[in-house]
Fold Aspartate aminotransferase family protein.
Amino acid sequence: MHQYNTQELRQQDGQHHLHPFTDTRELGSNSRIITGAEGIYIHDSEGNRILDAMAGLWCVNLGYGRQELVEAATAQMTELPYYNNFFKTAHPPAIKLAKKLTELAPEHINHVFFTGSGSESNDTVVRMVRRYWQLKGQPEKTVIIGRRNGYHGSTVAGASLGGMAPMHEQGGPMLPDVEHIAQPYWFGEGREMSPEEFGLLAARSLEQKIKELGVNRVAAFIAEPVQGAGGVIIPPESYWPEIQRICDHYGILLIADEVICGFGRLGQWFGSQHFNIKPDLMPVAKGLSSGYLPIGGVLVGDRVADTLIEQGGEFYHGFTYSGHPACAAVALRNLELMEEENVLEHVREEAAPYFAERWASLADHPLVGETRSLGLLGALELVADKTTLARFEPGIGGRCRDNCFNTGIVMRSVGETMVVSPPLVITRAEIDELVRLARESLDATARQLGIMD
Ligand SMILES: *Cc1c(COP(=O)(O)O)cnc(C)c1O
């Protein structure tokens, strides 16, 4: 075991490191230094063992410490650490991964464009969608419709497609010709109706927006099958079929951002398969390599791929690390391990049903207004009053998250919503521990508020 000088590391961190999505002044020199991990647990520099109920950032699907992935990286880096896929070259790991991904994808998807991350995948989506309509002789179709509170990454294109108001407010303007419609967030915005009615209403805001803009201007609709960073927002069952109907009716491209839902999170290879939709494009990243190395891609359906290939000539787009050999080798091994270990079956038949039952048991807690889950995604809505479902003042989620860390579990807060997305390999006993630690963290928060003693 390494020994760490936590004080010194924290001080240097505070002095030199600008963190992503962090208030640096508030953080000061108080960062928690993560030094190791195994299975579903991380360790910090002070020797604490913490259950990582977020799988890092929704990505460490096979858990930590998988030697097979380390070996795949080592072998590939020894053989060929880098080469690109530009200008009529390729290498075996990128080729094999492309073949594997298109075998796992729905039948109408037979091509993949590699990137280094989810954000780059969504930048690629914007360029590809606009190029597609140009080739179709309808270059005025440039508008992409996303959703308020959707998340599609943090580059200019990713932040623009996403509907996170605080991101849009910082240093705009965002990309032109991106519009946003309502999100299917029943607990937050639709409780006066049944979930089914609300789901239809939310979906029909797409139709309304298309009519308002004129279908001649609309290129595509983008959404996550289940919104992740927005607070694990699980759409009512009526939502996706109606979205699919509207996209089909108006002939616009459907983009399912599978960066979180892809690779088993909902018990299928892709979230689109769970909801039975047929996207033209599927950006992926995160779980593709279980987060061991950075890699993303866009799975491209035949409608778009055939047009780009047959009519497009050279597509002036690509990244130095598109299909990076070591990253591709690790991703391929990750997918093989998922098959060898029947991870999808484990999620579908064992982990998700048990998690759903245990997670729902938190509903009796005085701070909890709703629990919901799908696959291995879960959310809790924090409320000040369980009958009226009135909310606390902002800040309660962040307090609860800090308490989680001290209790020994990582949960994430999104406003007043607590979310989890544990590694897919989580066992029943570990789910019991996750729920027990979540309850302890809620208790600690309730005690701070003087609601419990
Ligand atoms: C995380 C995320 C992204 C961005 O991926 P990065 O690898 O962080 O760029 C895009 N879409 C969704 C749905 C995500 O959850």
Summary: The first helix runs from residue 6 to 16. DSSP finds 17 helices and 15 strands in the chain. The longest strand covers residues 109-115.
